[in-house]
Write a structure and sequence with these properties.
With about 190 residues, this protein is mainly alpha-helical. The chain contains 6 helices and no strands.
């Protein structure tokens, strides 16, 4: 990341915590929560692994094509699941962004690691794909953030779910934090 390595570690912590909560959601009694939780956990842990500063751990050259393959398969799954649930289109955008970043890392010179502030596009401006992904995730962050603002509580509203994995507002907060992390990672491209 541009700036101190501590910012990269904060991104690692945010994404890993989000992935851990998504694993907890896999045990939810609510089917809607379980359906999306696995892909979101994969995204959280994958983003955390990608954000580890290169000064601490530099993945071998074969790791980036593996990342691209794993997230490519996740993108195919999200595309298939989008037939019945539009929310999976967001998963498709996220997995496509991960494939894009992994492919950029695979084609980068060994010394260039975007999490350390190196530019992946040679300083000729923002590539079209990076710009489009930045626009999407920035819009998603703004829209999701606005949705998290609590509405006036009604007296006859349903009680909040008892289990942590069944709380839809926490799931939305996790998606928001991963989108913020994606914006931070895309800005380093």
């Amino acid at each position: 990341m541009h700036g101190p390595v501590s910012a990269a570690w904060l991104l690692v912590a945010l994404c890993a915590a989000t992935g851990a909560y998504c694993l907890l959601r896999l045990r939810s009694a609510v089917e809607e929560q379980r359906r999306a939780a696995g892909g979101e956990a994969l995204m959280g842990f994958g983003m955390a692994a990608m954000a580890v500063p290169a000064a601490v751990f530099t993945p071998p050259g074969w790791a980036w094509p593996v990342y691209a393959s794993v997230f490519g398969l996740a993108a195919l799954h999200a595309l298939w699941a989008a037939r019945r649930d539009r929310h999976h289109l967001h998963h498709l955008a996220g997995t496509a962004a991960m494939v894009y970043m992994a492919a950029a890392m695979a084609s980068a010179p060994p010394a260039a690691h975007p999490m350390e502030g190196m530019s992946m596009h040679g300083g000729t401006g923002v590539p079209v794909v990076t710009g489009a992904l930045l626009l999407y995730f920035t819009g998603y962050v703004l829209l999701s953030g606005a949705r998290l603002v609590p509405a006036a509580a009604t007296a006859g509203g349903p009680p909040p779910p008892a289990r942590w994995g069944d709380r839809p507002e926490l799931a939305r907060a996790c998606r928001l934090s991963m989108a913020i992390g994606m914006v931070a990672m895309l800005l380093t491209m």
